[in-house]
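Minutes, project huddle
Topic: does the predicted pose make sense with adenosine monophosphate bound?
PN asked that the exact inputs be recorded in the minutes so nobody has to dig through chat later. Recorded below.
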Amino acid sequence: MKILIIGSGGRESAFAYKIAQSSQLDKLFIAPGNPGTAQYGTNVPINVNDFDGLADFSKKEAVDIIVVGPEEPLVRGIHDFFSSQEDLKHIGVVGPKKAAAQLEGSKDFSKQFMIRHKIPTASFASFTKDNYEEGLKFLEQQKLPVVLKADGLAAGKGVLICETLEDAKTSFKEMLLNKKFGEASSTVVIEEFLKGIELSVFVLTDGHSYKILPTAKDYKRIGEGDTGLNTGGMGSISPVPFADPNLMKKIENQIIKPTIDGLKEERLPYKGFIFFGLMNVDGDPYLIEYNVRMGDPEAQSVLSRIDSDFVELLEGVVQEDLETRTYTVSPKIAATVVCVSAGYPGEYTKGDGIDNIENVEDSIVFHAGTAEKEGEIVTAGGRVLAVTSLQNTLFEALQQSTADAGRIFYKGKNFRKDIGFDLI
Ligand code: AMP
Ligand code: GLY
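Predicted holo structure (tokens), as shared on screen:
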């Protein structure tokens, strides 16, 4: 089987690592990939949104399955692009079509979907510049803090948690009238703040049945003790200790099943990953958001725990017989620590040489923002590397990943030394 992974981050490195272990694999390509994915397959220099380029390559190489890593090509309709053309539609695309990708592409769409299917979520209302004044009045009636969300994709930056009414009104104006997040904030969702502890649940579906993958928790803030600015994610652990059978049953019955049934009912074909961003509020799960892809850096922790052949599940998705497929999970605990560039999540430096990756023996080092320059691996993004280890206890896994993150060197390296320790 020939598989093409689309993307170039830590998540795609984890996909490449896992898929490369498959006995069914003949050839693995990653577009565009990074120096780390080149260990597992062949990188091809095609942009994730260059659908024509990806199509030509897939035809030339007789690709069987495409695994789409990031949300943007999905929201732009990569799956529809392939399935609507005679000479491409035999290629299985893991990732939803454009219509269902709106679950991530539009916060308003996803909230309306949750309401239609009675999925527990924070109360909300949506506004555009046409009912701006009404939005201000609505804000005055909300409890603080209050959450403002840009409707569209904003690279993880479109959510603001406002502690004061003044801050909320100013941000609301900036988003709607001054287009703080461009077109993404031409609609703004005002949402009730949920107080609880977050977790992520991942499901793989072929549109009929589904498999629940291992749970994970990510750490979004840049600073230790969950302080400072939001990032793409500074670390993750899997499984989540408080996701006990009782909570998981509620999540499945109240959130996962109604979602899968809702997609079927609304004729939104979905083949791919659904990422449920959840808040556990005193033992009751609420859905904060859908993502239509795996998480990053959750994928590094989740996929490294899957013991069986992962291609078996991907094949089940594209052939729509996922129900007949099985998979096994390691009882070990995974911990991922992300090494970032100096300045991230603000402006950051690039092009600094990375040393000592080869000295890491007991963790997997997934590349994210790296590049090759004159034979040397250099930094090339905000999140540079993700260091994942699997151990018998959460404590040991965290110790291992943190120690190994410390063994790698580049100028201005930063990583959190407290990932997961709140759960011990
Ligand atoms: P999102 O981009 O929707 O993932 O939101 C980013 C982060 O904002 C989430 O991971 C939560 O930590 C936080 N957040 C979003 N919505 C809420 C909410 N209604 N209540 C509390 N925190 C929220
Ligand atoms: N780590 C959160 C995300 O991938 O959206």
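Observations noted during the meeting:
- Residues 218, 232-233, 291, 295-296, 298 surround glycine (ligand 2) (CB under 6 Å).
- The first strand starts at residue 2 and ends at 7.
No decisions taken; revisit at the next huddle.
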